[in-house]
Write a structure and sequence with these properties.
This protein is an alpha/beta fold and about 300 residues long. Helix content is about 40%, strand content about 15%. The protein contains eight helices and ten strands. The protein has an eight-stranded parallel β-barrel with strand order 1-2-3-4-7-8-9-10, surrounded by six helices. It has a two-stranded antiparallel ribbon with strand order 5-6. The protein is globular.
């Protein structure tokens, strides 16, 4: 399978002051998909502009025609399956069936306490995620859903007419632990990883590749447990969090080398951050767009 190249556009620009133009440019240069982060605020961007993911994607859907759109990633930190399902069905309709939901268990960032709750432990996040994903799956595929869970309840929740994409829009499940990988195997059309975070500061690119190889092997075992062929699951790498950092975006050759090594592991899609000056995602815009237009053809 050929490698797809996508981008993630952080929601930091006002729509009429650069936001719309960025999403349209992502389509023009030929990216397969453009995603955005689904946070209330995020890391070093906390004290600057940051807009909501689903309204941004709705606007992007009306400003583009072919580009797939999605979140990387939505989490239970401030979402409820019932309200999220209604918004996703609406977004899928507005986009003409171009939406992918990236979904993960969440973390300990600002989203974790913005609603006044205590931070959940890793086990609590995993417990909630294990309930969140199957319920959301039902809400997006069934006309009416009633379910009382430990964390999430739906009472005669109506979601007609359902998604444009059938039986529902695809899930790209972010996971590295055993429970998350089982959810990806059972409910995902794709799996997402950023690599091994323990290697980011002091690891090497070779160590990162081996860690990712291990993640894919564990994903394969999880798929086997549910009777699924792991080859049928897309594998997405969100770039920027491995020891390579931003070096692969310094030239087309550097990116092709990086992407080729990960394509050999089995990755089918790499997502690179749209450049943001004076940030961790700073990059030369001309080189970035050259990667978008030239690199994918070299990875077929």
């Amino acid at each position: 399978m050929s490698m797809r190249l996508s981008t993630v556009i952080l929601p930091v620009d006002r729509w009429h002051q650069g936001g719309r133009a960025t999403w349209q440019r992502a389509e023009e240069v030929g990216f397969h998909a453009a995603y955005t982060y689904d946070h209330l605020s995020w890391r070093t961007f906390r004290d600057g502009p940051w807009f909501g993911a689903l309204p941004t994607l709705t606007a992007a859907a009306t400003a583009t025609d072919r580009l797939r759109l999605g979140t990387l990633v939505t989490s239970p930190n401030f979402r409820h399956p019932v309200t999220l399902a209604k918004e996703l069905i609406s977004l899928d309709d507005i986009s003409g069936g171009r939406v992918t939901l990236g979904i993960g268990a969440g973390g300990n960032g600002f989203d974790a306490t913005a609603l006044g709750q205590e931070q959940w432990t890793p086990r609590e996040r995993a417990d909630r995620f294990a309930e969140f994903v199957p319920l959301l799956d039902r809400l997006l595929t069934e006309g009416a859903v009633s379910q009382k869970g430990e964390f999430y309840t739906a009472e005669e929740a109506r979601n007609l007419p359902g998604c444009v994409q059938r039986p529902r829009l695809p899930f790209a499940v972010a996971a590295t632990g055993p429970r998350g990988l089982r959810l990806a195997a059972r409910h995902g059309q794709a799996w997402v990883t950023t690599g091994d975070p323990k290697l980011y500061e002091t690891g090497t690119p070779d160590q990162s590749v081996e860690a990712l190889r291990g993640q894919i092997e564990r994903l394969g075992k999880s798929c086997a447990e549910v009777g699924r062929d792991v080859a049928g699951l897309d594998k997405i790498l969100l770039h920027g969090f491995t020891p390579d950092r931003n070096r692969p975006l310094e030239s087309v050759d550097a990116f092709v080398d990086f992407a080729g090594r990960h394509h050999e592991l089995g990755f089918t899609e790499i997502v690179i951050h749209w450049p943001i000056p004076d940030s961790d995602f700073a990059a030369d815009q001309a080189v970035f767009e050259k990667i978008a237009t030239e690199a994918a053809g070299q990875l077929a």
